[in-house]
What we know:
Layout lengths: L3 H10 L4 E6 L4 E7 L4 E3 L6 E3 L4 H10 L18 E7 L5 E5 L2 E5 L1 H7 L1 H8 L30 E3 L4 H12 L5 H5 L9 H20 L3 H13 L4 H4 L6 H14 L2 H16 L14 H19 L4 H13 L2 H5 L6 H12 L6
Parallel strand pairs: 5-7, 6-8
Antiparallel strand pairs: 1-2, 3-4, 6-7
Helix pairs in contact: 3-4, 5-7, 7-8, 7-10, 10-11, 11-13, 12-13, 13-15
Amino acid sequence: MPTITDVISLLLRASVYVVSLGYNGSHFANVFVCTSLTVCVTPIGAIAYYSPVTLTTILGLFCSMPTLSRAGSMRSTDLTGFSRDEHYYFQDGNIVLLVGNVLFRLHSSLLSRECEMFRNMFSKPTRIASSMSLDGASEMPKKGKEGGCDENPIIMPQLRPQSFRNFLLAVYGRPGDKEFRALFKGVAELESVQAITSFLRIIDIVDLAHRFIAPDVETWAVSQLKGNTRLIETLNAYPISSKSHIRLLDYAKRTGDEELILWARHWARSYYAGAIETSSIASSAFGPAQKIREQLVREYKLATITQSFDTPIFGYLFCFLLSLGHEFWDKQVDLTREDRITLLGAQGAPINPG
């Protein structure tokens, strides 16, 4: 039976709009793909209708859904461990989204105004039937409309709550909110920590604006990013998660923005370059540089395992790791014997001038 990875690979290779799937809780069976203007995902014994723009969300949704009951209807979401967001759970909201383990109660009118993905999602509500008659009549779930309450939220897969909060700041922001105002200020107008926080928020905003098809928000966020390209030295003064570099680079590559691709690579390269010092490794064993070096090792291992890392960045990682020498490699438990042999061979390999 094909897995979710198989299905997504199929969809990426072809322009399709309709997908009919039989889902048994862990695999998809009876995959049927054809060209149309709607998407139909059919768990065993149930029917659900979605617009094509939400296809990625739907595939992740059904993979993360609870198991089916014997009658075929989906069991209500187990709320154990879920919490309501402190800032974006509005009592007068009319749509409940689940991101990670956090519930957001929002206003569909605001999301639809900015985001085509949400506009399409809300204009064609999901209908889930525990049984289907021959004439197509359906029975609505006992828990009510999906997204209408905490017990039956719309699950948003592959999102981090904090990234979603940052995006919502662009949608719900108001002039009296200092965090919102900071998004519009230049580097020179903010303290270093504020500038970094604001810049990282904008990366989340531009990434999710592209995913949710919010062109106005995306255009503004891109202009803010490019207006702060002088921020590299300030950014690199703090231990920032490499996920920020990767997320920005992935976004730039998805949109084909060559200027942003070059800048994102330069940011990542200069960040790791700060870990290479002339002083001995022992003297900085517990300093910020050592933490960045250890992060470099983790990123290198991730790149070798997934084999999907950006090629120029992988080259930077390899060269930087190579420059730290065997004394550093020997102390890294994450590096295998094969890794050390590869590095040692590259360090001692003669250069062929031809």
